[in-house]
Specification:
This protein is of the alpha/beta class and 237 residues long. The protein has one domain: Aldolase class I (TIM Barrel). The chain has 9 helices and 8 strands. Helix 4 runs parallel beside helix 5.
Length: 237
């Protein structure tokens, strides 16, 4: 049985670990995941996962694997050996790829499928060959992730309602969390309180914490919002 996931993932980006060290020191001891994305993993390599683990953090490896099923299966197996808590593949890879990912990860890590990048808006979809509307595209990919046996999926806060009938155990990872919704390269955003109240399992936050004068205080504020949202939900039943 894998441990419960922390509710907050800190998006750690960059091309080296050195600028992140002061932030990691400040965040030490908080119940958060260290999210390692493409830029940091490509620059540093797999050792970055070990580094984060030694610093006391569980790791969310966000590499969005999207390749033929055999390659993705091998990649997921390799990532699982790094002892990561959470790992992303891309739902656009299709059923066989997602099933290969689920089989390779079974019992060793949680794999979640990215539905549609939160940087994309409805106007972007025709440019990448998607004729359907955004909500229906996300809904189909979320259902596919569930059918293929993945642990969960990544979606914007505006699509959480599409998982209303999914099991509670289905991990709902929500990026695009901002102090106020909108305002940058993320097209579909919400505040931490809004996303938590809508049912997000893991909230991904980067700039609002990393750019804060006091990153620990910023992280604690978001954790408090998540907790308060849960209490409000229970009280409103």
């Amino acid at each position: 049985m894998m441990n419960p996931l922390p509710r907050l993932a800190i998006a750690l980006d960059g091309t080296s670990v050195e600028p992140l060290e002061p932030i990691l020191d400040q965040l030490h001891g908080l119940p958060v995941l260290a999210k390692v994305g493409l830029s940091l993993y490509t620059a540093v390599g797999p050792s970055i996962v070990h580094h984060m683990r030694m610093a006391g953090f569980e790791v969310f490896l966000d590499l969005k694997f999207h390749d033929i099923p055999h390659q993705v299966g091998l990649a997921v197996a390799a990532a699982a050996k790094l002892d990561v808590a959470l790992l992303t593949v891309h739902a656009a890879g299709g059923r066989a790829m997602l099933e290969a990912a689920a089989e390779s990860a079974r019992g060793r890590t949680r794999v979640v499928a990215v539905s549609v990048l939160t940087s994309l808006s409805p106007a972007d979809l025709p440019q990448i060959g998607i004729d359907g509307d955004l909500q229906s595209t996300v809904a189909k990919r979320l259902q596919l992730a569930r059918d293929c046996g993945l642990a969960g999926a990544v979606m914007s806060p505006h699509e959480l309602h599409l998982t209303r009938d999914f099991p509670k155990s289905f991990v709902r990872v929500v990026p695009g969390i901002r102090a106020t919704a909108g305002g940058d390269d993320q097209a579909r955003t919400a505040t931490a309180r809004e996303a938590a109240a809508a049912g997000a399992t893991v909230l991904v936050v980067g700039r609002p914490i990393l750019s804060a004068a006091d990153p620990r205080a910023a992280a604690e504020q978001i954790l408090a919002e998540i907790a308060a949202s849960g209490e409000s939900h229970v009280q409103s039943r």
